[in-house]
Amino acid sequence: MTPRRTFITALAGVVSALMLGVVLLKLFGYRPSHAYAGLLHSSLGSHQAVADTAGNAVPLVLCGLSASLAFSTGAVNLGQPGQFLMGALFAVVGGIYVPGPALVVVPLCLLLAALGGALWAGIAGVTRRRVGMDEFIVTLMLNFVADYFTQWLISSPLADPTRSSPTTRAVRPAAFLPSLGQWSIGVPVTVVVSGALWFLVHRSTIGYEWRMAGGARRFARLGGVAVERNVMAILGVSGGLAGLGGGMLALAGPHRFVRGIGGNYGWDGVMIAVVAASGLMATVAFGLFFSALQTGAIGMELRSEVPTEFVQILEATVVLITVAVRGVLSGAWVRFTTRRSAAIGVAKHSTGPCGRGPG
Fold first, then answer.
1. Are the beta carbons of 275 and 85 closer than 8 angstroms?
2. pLDDT at position 357
3. How far is CA 17 from each of CA 1, 133, 241, rounded to the nearest angstrom?
4. Is 257 buried (19+), middle (13-18) or exposed (0-12) by CB count in 10 A?
5. Which of 25, 84, 202, 344 reaches 20 to 30 Å from 311, CA-CA?
6. Nearest-angstrom CA–CA distance, 151 and 258
7. Domain ranges across the chain
8. Could you read off the pLDDT of 55-85 as tens digits, one per residue?
9. Is 54-305 CATH 1.20.120?
């Protein structure tokens, strides 16, 4: 799908969802203007609100890029929740045990986070290549394994004995993710990662092979592309992005691995990739949009008493309408091009090769 059609379908989904939200708010006795004003003010109404929205977008964008990269290059990765958890775990373990100053420890912990996500996604690549297992099933099932595995770790081997609830010990202060005033340092890191990923996919030889394998795998094999090796590389990079998101969240927020740290970031990333039609820059834009909705939800509730769950309805509606509109437009375009090609063929046949008719 072209960027223009992606933008049109996404805009239709956003506008329709907001309009449906107005209807629902009125139906249940709320004032839509107050609700949306509270949401907008809490997410974009001040410098601090903008900084919070950008900071909260970091794990959403990285998980979205993880899914978009896999979907757009022919590999299927639905393991973002598990890879996010493993990235957070690797980063926290590094923050607890790796000595040194912040200048060394923080980058090392972020690399460990990316490594944790990449290794967890790499399991699906290995099983696909060695025994022919579908990475769709493997990445999906590994989410549950990661969840239970990390819960066991923080309840027994890595548990903090001073805490009543399952959690690891806090990382060393040198491993705390620093901030730039009101802004999380995760924001510029995510910008750099997003730009580097776009360059890799759209301006490098390996990125061309990835995209070719995603669009025409049989043609890519005939052209000498090592498809299976590329799928493993894609899964590794995809998992590394989700793991990096988990690592930055852990080092910026609780500074330890706690129960529920993964939240819905992984699945939200998949939703963002779907809405963005797996476009990398569109994924960044929709990550910011979803973050604005989630960041403004609390302010909306405080100002208008609309429950924060209303934002989840908006997000789901955006996804459903966007996918529906995209399907309708794609079907209409196929029918139009088919009829146009048929009409041109009939016209050529009726006029003959010299344009003077069949006789």
1. no
2. 53
3. 22, 38, 29
4. buried
5. 84
6. 9
7. 1-30+308-349, 54-305
8. 999 999 999 999 999 998 888 899 999 999 9
9. no
